[in-house]
Structures
1.
Amino acid sequence: MSKSKFGALWREGKTVWGAWLMLGNSITAEMVGYCGYDYVCIDTQHGLIDYTVALGMLQALNLANTVPLVRVGANSEQEIGKFLDAGAMGIIIPQVNAVEDAERAVEAVFYPPRGKRSFGPMRPSLRQGMSYYQNVNNEVVVIPQIETAEALDNLELILALPRIDMIYVGPADLRISMGLSPAMDGEEPEFVEAIDLIVRACQEADVIPAIHAENTDLCHKREDQGFRMITAVADFGMLQAGMKAQLHAVKNR
């Protein structure tokens, strides 16, 4: 479902838009799942979410017409496998800095002969039976995060790996690794050059560049730059901003 849905949108020249969940709540996941985003990512790296809670959130997302992704806390074969067995259709892997990191991620996501994933798809088998095993290698997506200066140095090697269909830029960590303050955007020449380099390298390698954005203007800017998979909203920030805006509105009529 992931590759076929994303691929259909990209072939039409469209951008894939997503939402990000950092608060552990299955009702929130169900609500966001029905909002119409192409994908919804459960963040178990920085989000306040453990495996048991994420399992309920994946059950909720599986009810909606969205692609459920999980950002894992580490490039771990066991952790990646558990979230795939729980129903994730794509895994975002943080801190992929070298080609060896990317190879390890690929091996954890795919069944042999493409990878080394162990067989035991607990939840997917309830819905799909053996057809899950027969089709999942062609549908699940592995998404390395490019978020350090070291990763930039190794970018071409990472993009050249088979089965790397997309990468995900973490702008705050990328900026930190370059000696800059954490932020979603900035006009420092080295950061602007890094973003341009990533987009060009992805286009040359026929890999989809994805990125975090935090507001409408930045989403449109990233789309104009060539990003074709963009996280447009996160539950934590949106809830906080909405609560503040409402308080300001009622107190300042």
2.
Amino acid sequence: MHVAIAGNIGAGKTTLTKLLAKHYKWSPHYESVDENPYLDDFYGAMERWSFNLQVYFLNSRFRQILEIRKGSKNIIQDRTIYEDAHIFAPNLHAMGLMPERDFQNYSSLFKLMERLVTPPDLLIYLRANIPTLVGQIHKRGRDYENSISIDYLSRLNERYEAWISTYSKGNLLIIDVDNLDFVDKPEDLGLIIDKIDAQIHGLF
């Protein structure tokens, strides 16, 4: 079984991935943030590095999916390949931070990869408002994220909502995390697990 967690920057994807991997004994696949050689440069000069960053993420996630397909373990994945193509790259293009030529090149590459991609059995979308996202981003204290603007997060949130509203590749579970603390409140994590159990039982 392949479960994936989607959500904006700071929504809690990585944390929930760790907690669910531990609870269900699933094998976690994380987003390669710390190893990404473009992130610091990107947040310092988005227009210069947007294409490089997005191609790196696309390559990394496509590689992940191929590894998932080869194995027989139950997998939980932190972020999906679809978010890069439907949210982050189009947003950079719309903001004038990715030139048309680069965006078309990127989109063509994604469409080619998508033919070989099997969607997750269950997609969990973490919905969060801007204050929640900003609070989480500040709490984890990554230097390169200090320059992320409210406007940038808001644009991403709008695109996430538009994408999720039309998502039809598989089972979808939407979790509003604004009033949940699944790290420090076991009952909140239990609430999420109950919802996932209901979805999983419906898969079989």
3.
Amino acid sequence: MKGIIQTDPIDRSALLKRGNFEIGSTVTFEGIVRRTESSKEIIHLFYDSDQKLAEEELNRILDEAVEKFGLIDSIAVHRVGMVKPGEISLLVAVSSSHRKEGFEGCSYIVEAIKQRLPIWKKDHFKDGTESWH
């Protein structure tokens, strides 16, 4: 298992080759930047974080999911910096012997990332306004 914070675009195929994702079930989640938020057109998002702290917490989340759901392997990658609509900002992949554990483990990881990861998002809108989340 590996948690990664990076500025480069996420390459799903390359990441899945890094883990043990050829057994039983592989469940993936891709968070893709929307084109609108609150009826306003997004130009791009900017993600900021303390990379070291974010990776430490991300790895704790992955460890918890492996233990709780009996996962075989897991990986999660979150982008920081500028991310445009249509690009992947978050990828989570888990492998498990059976799909139920995979779906539950993947969902747990995504929700924990949203709640606990020290990453902040700033929306940049076409009308020139900005909004931190």
